[in-house]
C-alpha cells in the first residue's frame, strides 16, 4: 500500500514538473517579450510624433482618428482620402519623385495589390502585429488572419462583410426584382440598352465584380460574352456618375455601382440584390469586396504605423471602425474579428450564424483581364 502511494506521489510530482517546465517560464518570457517590444514601439512612435494614412473612410474618417488620438495624443495624423485608383496613382507618382510620404493605406484590395504590391512598395504587415489579442487567430473569423495576396503577408483583410459575389444594383422604379431570379434573366430583350457596367477591367470599379461573375458556377465566361455582345451594355469609368445614372433612370440595372447605402439614405430609388436573391448567388467573404490594410515600405513613421496597426486591429479599434462605418458613413461593414459585438452592423452586412461563408483572400486578376480585353475588343 505504501509503495503504491509513493508511486502515485512520484508521478504527481513528475506531472507538475513537466507542466511547469513546458508552460511556466516560456509563457512568462513570451509575455515579457511582446510587452517589451510594445513599450519600445510606443515610445519611439511618440518621438516620431506623426503618421500618414491614405485610403477611404475606413481609415481616414475623423471619428476613427479621434478615437486613436484619445489613446495616443502625441501622434499627429495626416490623411488623404479618395478613390483607390486616384490614391494609388498619387502614391506611385510620389515615390517616383523620391518622396516616400505614406505609412499605411486601407481600402478595397485591388489598388493595394495591382498598384502597390506588384510595384514592391509594401512591407509585410504580418510583421507589424504585436499585441496578443491581434495575433491570436481565435479572435478572427475562420480562425486565422486572411490575406489578399499570394504570399499571405501583405494585404491583411480586416473586413468580413458577406456578399453574394458580383454586385448588381437596380432602380426600384424601373425593375421588379421578383422578375429577376437568375443572372441569365438579364439577357431578356426588355433589358437591352438598360444595363450599365462600371468599367469591368478597372481595379477600382468593376474588375472584382467581373472576377466574381467568371468564378460563379452557372454563370462564367459564356454569360459575360453574351452580356456584352447582345445587350448594348453601357460602361462608366466614374463611380459617382454610375450611381447617378442609375438613380436618374438612364439605366435600370448596374453591375458594380457603389455608394448604394448613401444613395438610399438620400431617398434615391436604388437597391442591390442580396446574397440568395439570384439563383447563382454565392455566399462569400472577401473576393474583392472586403477592405484590406497595407504597410508602405520606407514610410516616414515606422513605429507610429506599427502602433496604429495594432490599435486599429484590436477589439477596441475594430469596434470603433465598425460603428463609424455602419452608423455614420452608412455603409454596411462587418469586422473579421468575432469578439466585436455586431449590434451596430446593418442587416445586409450581418453574418448569419447558420450559414457557411467561403472566405476568399487572393484571386489572381490576370485571367479575367485577358478575357475581358478580348471580349471588349470584339
Question: Secondary structure elements and their pairing?
Answer:
Layout: H1 2-48, E1 50-55, H2 57-60, H3 62-71, E2 76-81, H4 84-96, E3 104-107, H5 110-117, E4 122-123, H6 132-135, E5 156-157, E6 162-163, E7 168-171, E8 195-198, H7 207-215, H8 220-230, E9 234-236, H9 239-248, E10 253-255, H10 260-265, E11 270-272, E12 284-286, E13 292-296, H11 302-312, H12 315-328, E14 358-360, H13 366-377
Parallel strand pairs: 1-2, 1-3, 8-9, 8-10, 12-14
Antiparallel strand pairs: 3-13, 4-13, 5-13, 6-12, 7-10, 7-11
Helix pairs in contact: 1-11, 3-12, 4-5, 7-8
Order of helices and strands, N to C? Answer: HEHHEHEHEHEEEEHHEHEHEEEHHEH
What helical percentage do the residues reach?
40-55%
Radius of gyration, CA atoms, in whole angstroms:
24 Å
Query: What is the C-level CATH assignment of the largest domain?
Result: Alpha Beta
Number of domains: 2
Structure description:
With 378 residues, this protein is α/β, with parallel strands linked by helices. It has two domains: 203 residues, Periplasmic binding protein-like II (D-Maltodextrin-Binding Protein, domain 2), CATH 3.40.190.10; 118 residues, 3-Layer(aba) Sandwich (D-Maltodextrin-Binding Protein, domain 2). The protein has 13 helices and 14 strands. Strands 1, 2, 3, 4, 5 and 13 form a six-stranded mixed sheet that branches. Strands 9-8-10-7-11 form a five-stranded mixed sheet. Strands 6-12-14 form a three-stranded mixed sheet, with no helix packed on it. Helix 3 runs antiparallel to helix 12 and helix 7 packs across helix 8. The protein is globular. The N terminus is likely disordered.
Amino acid at each position: 500500500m505504501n509503495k503504491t502511494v509513493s508511486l502515485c506521489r512520484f508521478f504527481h510530482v513528475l506531472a507538475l514538473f513537466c507542466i511547469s517546465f513546458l508552460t511556466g517560464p516560456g509563457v512568462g518570457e513570451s509575455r515579457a517579450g511582446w510587452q517589451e517590444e510594445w513599450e519600445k514601439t510606443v515610445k519611439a512612435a511618440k518621438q516620431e510624433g506623426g503618421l500618414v494614412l491614405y485610403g477611404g473612410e475606413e481609415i481616414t474618417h475623423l471619428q476613427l482618428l479621434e478615437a486613436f488620438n484619445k489613446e495616443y495624443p502625441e501622434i499627429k495624423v495626416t490623411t488623404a482620402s479618395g478613390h483607390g485608383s486616384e490614391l494609388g496613382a498619387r502614391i506611385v507618382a510620389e515615390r517616383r519623385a523620391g518622396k516616400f510620404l505614406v505609412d499605411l493605406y486601407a481600402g478595397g484590395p485591388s489598388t493595394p495589390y495591382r498598384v502597390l504590391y506588384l510595384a514592391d512598395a509594401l512591407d509585410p504587415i504580418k510583421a507589424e502585429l504585436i499585441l496578443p489579442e491581434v495575433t491570436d487567430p481565435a479572435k478572427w473569423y475562420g480562425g486565422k488572419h486572411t490575406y489578399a495576396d499570394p504570399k499571405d503577408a501583405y494585404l491583411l483583410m480586416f473586413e468580413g462583410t458577406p456578399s453574394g459575389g458580383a454586385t448588381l444594383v437596380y432602380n426600384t422604379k424601373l425593375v421588379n426584382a421578383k422578375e429577376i431570379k437568375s443572372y441569365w434573366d438579364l439577357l431578356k430583350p426588355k433589358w437591352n440598352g438598360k444595363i450599365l457596367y462600371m468599367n469591368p477591367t478597372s481595379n477600382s470599379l468593376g474588375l472584382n465584380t467581373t472576377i466574381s461573375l467568371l468564378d460563379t458556377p452557372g454563370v462564367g465566361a459564356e454569360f459575360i460574352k453574351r452580356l456584352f455582345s447582345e445587350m448594348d451594355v453601357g460602361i462608366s469609368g466614374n463611380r459617382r456618375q454610375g450611381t447617378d445614372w442609375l438613380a436618374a433612370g438612364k439605366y435600370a440595372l448596374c453591375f458594380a455601382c457603389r455608394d448604394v447605402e448613401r444613395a438610399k439614405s438620400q431617398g434615391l430609388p436604388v437597391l442591390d440584390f442580396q446574397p440568395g436573391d439570384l439563383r447563382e448567388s454565392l455566399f462569400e467573404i472577401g473576393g474583392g469586396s472586403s477592405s484590406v490594410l497595407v504597410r508602405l515600405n520606407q514610410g516616414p513613421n515606422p513605429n507610429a504605423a506599427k502602433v496604429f496597426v495594432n490599435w486599429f486591429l484590436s477589439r477596441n479599434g475594430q469596434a470603433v471602425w465598425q460603428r463609424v462605418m455602419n452608423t455614420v458613413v452608412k455603409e454596411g461593414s462587418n469586422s473579421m474579428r468575432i469578439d466585436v459585438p455586431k449590434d451596430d452592423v446593418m442587416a445586409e452586412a450581418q453574418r448569419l450564424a447558420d450559414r457557411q461563408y467561403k472566405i476568399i483572400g487572393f484571386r489572381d486578376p490576370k485571367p479575367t483581364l485577358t478575357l475581358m480585353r478580348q471580349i471588349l475588343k470584339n
